């Protein structure tokens, strides 16, 4: 229980969304400045919790993903005070490194241009690459003792303000599965905006918490209470659990988020409408199926549509009575 | 164990025999050999001239040189020379693999046939062939469902000259595992009958829809089979039904086994020792590429299926009746079409008949469809105006000077330890190259 933990924080830094957030009145919004100062307080708390705790901060900027800070010294800005090797990981290094790299990016933006989608996938994959490397180093240095291979409890915290980008469905799912393999917990803190389908699934599948902030002025308290304790301790304290998990997916053809989809039996690609040829694996579907699906579509809401194809008639399957 | 470590471990095995396994044909025996003698790699390189037979690990020999576990940990500590060789191997294999998306049969149906004849009590594998088979079969089922979430497995045993139905076809891993959980119910006795077992497996798959694959995997420890009729007739029927038969033999190669596999497009292998047994079995887990099936006549017909992605209710929600068992429950999944509550997915909605699957189930197989293009090794920095100082993935610093420590088989490796994505032109370190292609399946630079 008393293990050091690694935290990778992914901060959504979309200027447009933060502008919305700052202007919002119902629910009351939060300016980026206030958010960052609360975030830094939280990050300081994490490294102060235990001497061996490690931290990495990634920024998801429009079309970019950047490592803003890491406690092992990979992301240092040119500022002289921040690169002083004799300083013992002071809060100051963290604060100034994070703030100066954010300011650097923000100054370079052209306000007139349309904003690209934020680099959330880049941040997730980079965080995983970073965790993958640090885990292997730790397990090598701590080999011999039983169970030492997991001496670091890695987790990722995503602070999100942007809506879902359905184009990133597959990369996000791939990142979730690799996080599962590495036993990395993904926590999601939705600071502003509507529920995020993919991030809900990420938290659910990796055993993390998905917290939708109801009062932005209490952000720091939310973070301290929910995300500061490592997952091992969370069993003892009551961290807000997820209410409902939305398992919707994005279709491959229009990147729409769908709840009922048409799925290729060969490659499992999802389409939002019946298509004659699978665009992924080039499989041609039988005309009969298409006619049947098209015919049943307008009626799809009525439960007893005759001819609704049921290719896998496995009434048994999961419907078997199970013990308990 | 981190997956990267496991992968490296596997490659290490190939590596120690770089001189004999070039053709790939004798790769299997050499793999097993290296498993047993993992640690002895340096010594072996010296006395390679002393003949192959001497190096051949017998199962009993392998028991006291089981050091592959330690070897793996060494690698994480960067033993440059040997490690680079094996990473190079993995890279080359990846470059050889076709870049285009292969069509794979993803809705699979498999019958696992277990040999429960008295030959399985043999102790040449530890503790016995039988116990080892049970243990691996359980691991196989778990891993198989992980990679084929919409598939189904049935279990058939061969015992006393008969085929015995041990587990019905089921898509629930727990049901399948329960069937092979109790050792005392499966105790071996008598002769096996390959024909009876295959016929039984065939009949349990006869009703399946045309777009699913049908496979039989046999674990066969005996050297005889006691059949009521001509097994070649059964073989012809299987070919006609497009059933793919794969056999993992524990004793020796039998002609009829080889024939069953070859004619149906399956795989055949004889396990040399415990580790090799597991390798052979686990090779059958990833969804087979469609062209392997095509050889036996077109493969299963493709179809477009309608599926619903549900909403999951937490166990804190107010209890209500489920439509599948009519029980009061809090947790469950809501059918997106009729909003009925079902207990578990994947299933067909009992009210409207919609197939309900959780979308992560489907997404788990997408990395087969959209693999990351292999990174190219950076051989010189002369044509790069401003080489990045750090890996684009994990931000580790690159070496300033080219390395001179590459082994003999280090071709395809970068002297600078840099690998470049052809899409986004970012440089990655060796660790991230492996991790991105084997685990994440998504390039951190371009997100593809
Ligand atoms: Zn679409
Ligand atoms: Zn397809
Ligand atoms: Zn039920
Ligand atoms: Zn329904
Ligand atoms: Zn790297
Ligand atoms: Zn790339």
Automatic annotation (TrEMBL), chain A:
Superkingdom, natural source: Eukaryota
Coiled coil start-end: none
Subunit structure: Component of the 7-subunit TFIIH core complex composed of XPB/SSL2, XPD/RAD3, SSL1, TFB1, TFB2, TFB4 and TFB5, which is active in NER. The core complex associates with the 3-subunit CTD-kinase module TFIIK composed of CCL1, KIN28 and TFB3 to form the 10-subunit holoenzyme (holo-TFIIH) active in transcription.
Region annotation (Disordered) ranges: 296-324
Record localization: Nucleus
GO terms for biological process, alphabetical: nucleotide-excision repair; regulation of DNA-templated transcription
Classification of source organism: Eukaryota, Fungi, Dikarya, Basidiomycota, Agaricomycotina
InterPro entries linked to this entry: TFIIH_Tfb4/GTF2H3, vWFA_dom_sf
Alphabetical UniProt keywords: DNA damage, DNA repair, Metal-binding, Nucleus, Transcription, Transcription regulation, Zinc, Zinc-finger
Function: Component of the general transcription and DNA repair factor IIH (TFIIH) core complex, which is involved in general and transcription-coupled nucleotide excision repair (NER) of damaged DNA and, when complexed to TFIIK, in RNA transcription by RNA polymerase II. In NER, TFIIH acts by opening DNA around the lesion to allow the excision of the damaged oligonucleotide and its replacement by a new DNA fragment. In transcription, TFIIH has an essential role in transcription initiation.
Name of protein: General transcription and DNA repair factor IIH subunit TFB4
GO molecular function: zinc ion binding
Family: Belongs to the TFB4 family.
Keyword Zinc: yes
GO CC terms of this entry: transcription factor TFIIH core complex; transcription factor TFIIH holo complex
UniProt feature, compositional bias: Polar residues: 296-316
From TrEMBL, chain B:
Gene3D superfamilies per the UniProt record, alphabetical: von Willebrand factor, type A domain, Zinc/RING finger domain, C3HC4 (zinc finger)
PANTHER family associated with the record: GENERAL TRANSCRIPTION FACTOR IIH SUBUNIT 2, GENERAL TRANSCRIPTION FACTOR IIH SUBUNIT 2-RELATED
Domain VWFA: 109-260
Main location (coarse class): nucleus
Name of the protein this chain belongs to: General transcription and DNA repair factor IIH
One term of GO molecular function: zinc ion binding
Cellular localization per UniProt: Nucleus
Keyword set, alphabetical order: DNA damage, DNA repair, Metal-binding, Nucleus, Transcription, Transcription regulation, Zinc, Zinc-finger
């Amino acid at each position: 229980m008393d293990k050091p933990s690694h935290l990778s924080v992914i901060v959504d830094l979309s200027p447009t969304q933060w502008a919305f957030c700052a202007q919002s009145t119902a629910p009351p919004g939060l300016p980026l400045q206030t958010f960052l100062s609360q975030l830094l307080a939280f990050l300081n708390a994490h490294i102060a919790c235990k001497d061996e705790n490690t931290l990495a901060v990634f920024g998801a900027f429009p079309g970019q993903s950047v490592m803003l800070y890491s406690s092992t010294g990979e992301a240092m800005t040119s500022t002289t005070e921040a690169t002083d090797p004799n300083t013992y990981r002071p809060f100051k290094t963290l604060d100034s490194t994070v703030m100066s790299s954010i300011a650097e990016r923000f100054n370079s933006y052209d306000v007139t241009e349309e904003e690209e989608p934020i680099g959330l996938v880049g941040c997730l994959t980079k965080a995983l690459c970073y965790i993958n490397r640090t885990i292997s180093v730790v397990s090598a240095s701590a080999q011999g003792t039983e169970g030492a291979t997991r001496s670091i409890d890695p987790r990722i915290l995503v602070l999100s303000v942007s809506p879902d980008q359905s184009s990133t469905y597959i990369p996000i799912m791939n990142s979730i599965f690799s996080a599962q393999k590495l036993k990395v917990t993904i926590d999601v803190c939705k600071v502003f905006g509507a529920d995020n389908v993919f991030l809900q699934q990420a938290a659910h599948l990796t055993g993390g918490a998905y917290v939708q902030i109801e009062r932005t002025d209490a952000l720091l308290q939310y973070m301290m209470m929910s995300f500061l304790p490592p997952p091992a301790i969370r069993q003892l304290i009551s961290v807000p659990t997820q209410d409902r998990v939305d398992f919707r997916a994005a279709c491959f053809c229009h990147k729409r988020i769908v709840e009922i989809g048409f799925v290729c039996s060969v490659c499992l690609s999802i389409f939002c409408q019946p298509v004659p040829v699978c665009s992924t694996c080039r499989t041609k579907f039988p005309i009969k199926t298409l006619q049947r699906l098209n015919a049943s579509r307008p009626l799809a809401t009525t439960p007893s549509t005759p001819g609704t194809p049921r290719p896998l008639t496995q009434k048994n399957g999961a419907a078997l009575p199970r013990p308990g | 164990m981190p997956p990267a470590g496991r992968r490296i471990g596997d490659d290490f095995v190939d590596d120690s025999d770089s001189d004999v396994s070039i053709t790939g044909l004798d790769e299997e025996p050499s793999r097993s050999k290296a498993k047993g003698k993992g640690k002895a790699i340096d010594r072996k390189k010296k006395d390679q001239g002393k003949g192959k037979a001497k190096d051949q690990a017998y199962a009993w020999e392998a028991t006291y040189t089981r050091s592959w576990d330690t070897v793996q940990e060494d690698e994480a500590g960067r033993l440059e020379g040997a490690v680079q060789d094996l990473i190079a191997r993995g890279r080359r294999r990846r470059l050889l693999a076709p870049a285009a998306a292969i069509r794979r049969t993803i809705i699979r149906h498999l019958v696992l046939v277990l040999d429960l004849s008295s030959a399985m009590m043999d102790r040449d594998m530890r503790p016995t062939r039988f116990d080892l088979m049970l243990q691996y079969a359980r691991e196989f089922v778990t891993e198989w469902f992980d990679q084929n979430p919409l598939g189904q497995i049935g279990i058939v045993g061969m015992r006393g000259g008969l085929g015995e139905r041990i587990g019905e076809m089921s898509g629930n891993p727990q049901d399948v595992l329960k069937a092979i959980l109790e050792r005392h119910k499966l105790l071996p006795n008598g002769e096996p009958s390959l024909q009876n077992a295959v016929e039984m497996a065939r009949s349990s798959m006869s009703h399946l829809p045309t777009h699913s694959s049908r496979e039989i995997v046999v674990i066969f420890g005996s050297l005889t089979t006691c059949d009521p009729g001509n097994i070649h007739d059964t073989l012809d029927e299987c070919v006609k039904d497009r059933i793919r038969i794969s056999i993992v033999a524990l004793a020796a190669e039998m002609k009829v086994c080889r024939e069953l596999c070859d004619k149906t497009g399956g795989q055949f292998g004889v396990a040399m020792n415990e580790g090799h047994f597991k390798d052979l079995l686990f090779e059958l887990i990833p969804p087979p590429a469609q062209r392997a099936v095509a050889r036996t006549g077109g493969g299963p017909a493709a179809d477009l299926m309608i599926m619903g992605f549900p909403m999951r209710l937490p166990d804190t929600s107010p209890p209500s009746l489920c439509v599948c068992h009519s029980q009061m429950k809090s947790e469950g999944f809501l059918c997106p079409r009729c909003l009925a509550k079902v207990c578990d997915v994947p299933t067909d909605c009992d009210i409207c008949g919609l197939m309900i699957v959780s979308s992560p189930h489907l997404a788990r197989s997408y990395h087969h469809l959209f693999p990351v293009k292999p990174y190219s090794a950076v051989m010189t920095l002369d044509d790069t105006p401003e080489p990045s100082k750090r890996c684009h993935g994990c931000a580790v610093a690159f070496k300033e000077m080219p390395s001179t420590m590459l082994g003999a088989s280090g071709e395809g490796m970068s002297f600078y330890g840099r690998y470049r994505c052809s899409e986004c032109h970012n440089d990655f370190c060796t660790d991230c190259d492996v991790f991105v292609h084997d685990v994440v399946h998504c390039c951190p630079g371009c997100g593809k």
